Amino acid sequence: MALCSASIFLRLATVLGLAVATVAMASAPAAAQEVVVSVNGDPITSYDLEQREKLLRGLHKPAGRDAAIESLISDRLMAREASRYGINISDEEIGSQIAEDARKAKMTPQAFAAEASRTGASPEHVRNHFKSELAYNVLIKGLNRGVEASETQIRSELAREKGKSGVTDYTIRQVVFTLSPSDGPAQVEAALKQATALRTRFTSCDSGIAYAKTLPGVAIRAKLTRDSTQLSDEIKQVLDAMPVGHLSAPTRSGNGIELIALCGRGAPANDDQLRKQIGDRILSEHLESVAAQRYREMRATAVIERPRG
Questions:
Q1: pTM for this structure?
Q2: Distance in angstroms (rounded) separating the CA atoms of residues 278 and 268
Q3: What is the three-state SS of 168-217?
Q4: Under CATH, what is the fold of the domain 169-266?
Q5: Residue 279 to residue 95: CA distance in whole angstroms
Q6: Contact, 118 vs 20, CB < 8 A?
Q7: What letter does residue 119 receive in the DSSP assignment?
Q8: Model confidence band, residue 116 (pLDDT cutoffs 50, 70, 90)
């Protein structure tokens, strides 16, 4: 499961509608609701179905009647199973499940949460959906505490993936033409011209950094080495397109005009990061398999009743 800090959990939960004023509230359910299906005696109503169809459409998932009913059944079964073990999820904790679902959808957690908040489903319905998923995942992880990828599995995957893992180390230095908040367009334009001129003559980190240090108002950040798993896709695209020993295009930031010097790029010095990635993936796949098998068993023994007529 993807990890987020507690502060990110709170921010994502707020996006989902804990700050209700930011979300268009769905109309209250009518007094008389049709029971569409019951799950072990727990009724699912036409209002629940309407809300789930909205949520699924907003998350770009199959949203037909049958798909929505199955999604609701899944939530009820997962929540019931987790509750048997005393697992209860608070509103503030659901950010971790949003992050996990976002990872599967290849979206950032913030973008995924924003999509969920715009579905038209009530904030309570959205929260309850993610609570059910998270409670079940917490249960599965708890029942498999101590399980991890074996050294044999890691070595086997390492032998297969080494050389094609896509993990790259980048050694960089930031070069900043500093500006103060009071500087106007003329000062910004002057700094931009200086940065562009430096970029033109910058052909190696040793000579280029030495020269940059002689320029007035230029700050040179300490050398950093980061691997590709620690960088955003945007930064990786910039660094992959640059020759080693050159500067990126200047960009405006809160500190002034910034450039990135690419001083090194290559395979990681050791395979620790790759081993961790492989171990995490093997464990994640194992937990997903266990969760799916347990759910199939729950679904097979559940009492699902639909009204006659």
A1: 0.57
A2: 15
A3: CEEEEEEEEEECCCCCCHHHHHHHHHHHHHHHHHCCCHHHHHHHHCCCCC
A4: Chitinase A; domain 3 (3.10.50)
A5: 24
A6: no
A7: S
A8: confident
**Cα-Cα-Cα-Cα dihedral sign, residues 220, 221, 223, 229:** negative
Residue with the bigger pLDDT between 11 and 148: it is 148
**Residue 220 DSSP code:** E
CATH of 6-147+285-305, one of 1.10.1200, 2.60.40, 3.30.1330, 1.10.4030: 1.10.4030
DSSP-derived secondary structure letter, 278 = H
Break the chain into its structural domains and give their ranges. Answer: 6-147+285-305, 169-266
Looking at residue 60, its pLDDT comes to 87
Say if residues 117 and 16 touch (Cβ distance below 8 Å): yes
Compute the distance between CA of residue 77 and CA of residue 307 in angstroms, rounded to an integer.
Answer: 19
Beta bridge partners of 226: 170
Whether residue 76 has pLDDT greater than 80: yes
What residues form DSSP beta bridges with 175? 220, 259
DSSP string, 12-58: HHIIIIISGGGS-PPPPPPSS--EEEEETTEEEEHHHHHHHHHHHHH
